[in-house]
Design brief:
By secondary structure, the protein is of the alpha+beta class. Helix content is 33%, strand content 23%. The chain contains four helices and six strands. The N and C termini lie far apart (35 Å).
Amino acid sequence: MSKEQTDDLMKFLKPFPKDIQETALWLREFVWDLYPETNELIYDSYNAVAFGWSLTDRLGQMFCGIGVFRSNYNIHFSFYWGSELSDPDKILLGQGKQYRYIIVKSKKDFPKAYIKKLIKAAYANALTKVKDPKHIIHGATITKAIYEKKRKNTTKKK
């Protein structure tokens, strides 16, 4: 399992329009190319497909991620512990205690250089959250949750 392991993710992204799929996959490549030794965690829920990168197989060590929402097709590029990051340009959205994100409308508008700096800081921050270095694993793609039953129920209501 690794960057090349796309079977589950492609299955989960299939219901989305082609341009949304392409943008999400482009963002995925962007992160994998920067941090190939980390792990991709994939979640397919009733309201979004989310995948992000972690030092372990745990959500709590996730440093950045991508969410593709079913209701409005918004794509979030997110930082699980984003509230702990310095964001001098004030581009991150979110008011909660932890999660911060930007909405990605297109590849050309994605602030690559700035996001690279945020990812680097988020990665360093995630390292501080690993209590036992034995939990660190490298280069895996792990499907963590599939909420097919809930998704089917949601689809039937439409």
